[in-house]
Protein: Cytochrome P450
Amino acid sequence: MAPLQRFQWQRTSHGFRFIASTWSPTYVEWFQSNQSYSRRSGRQASLMLLIPLGRYGHVFTIKLGSAIVLVVNNWESGKECFTINDLNVSYRPSILMTEHMTYNQGMFSFSPYGAYWREIRKMSNSGILSKNKVDLLSDIRGLEVKSSIQELFNLWSQKKDESNFMLVEMKQWFRELALNVIFHIAAGKKDFGGDATNNDKEAQTYIKTIRKFLRLIGTYTIADAIPLLRWLISAKNTQFSYTFMALI
Structure:
């Protein structure tokens, strides 16, 4: 889902055109439906968005308070969102999360389309994501993969059972490998493994903070739906501020 300000789009022979939103549950109705649907079905509440699929097609909008949210229900339309119609979904609204956790939309991924976004994107493509830069950092990626496999082998040697098997949590292994590559490139050190710079307790604190950050990124608060309520929320007393300060 990508938040928009004012419009819904509809497929035409020339691509998409914007029309007024038609199916618009209020924020309270949406919250109540989410809660009841989750308890009744035991599945994710986001599946409720399949309900208007037959009437409105694979691309439609719903209204959450003052915000209009674009819903895309198939990969073909999703691909068009980021290719043919990328400018139409490049807008990023200012919500509590972006204000307190992205330097007020200063982070490239959360910035609205404009001169700043275009300049940072150009710098990213020519610098960080350029072929020369990627090739230059390939040794670090290879080193971390080799180191992680060696540590996995050492662990297997110590804890294997009588059948030479050992249960490994691959989700955790891949997570620590990815974080080691990121930290090695960004800070020149690693946080997991036998030769890690930090102890295990500090590394686990990093993981918890990052998890909370990623969870809060998708948070849409009542103050975002009803902007008049924002004055009731102190910036210093929000989970956004606490988590962001812990992360930096």
Summary: Residues 2-91 form one domain. The longest helix spans residues 138-159.
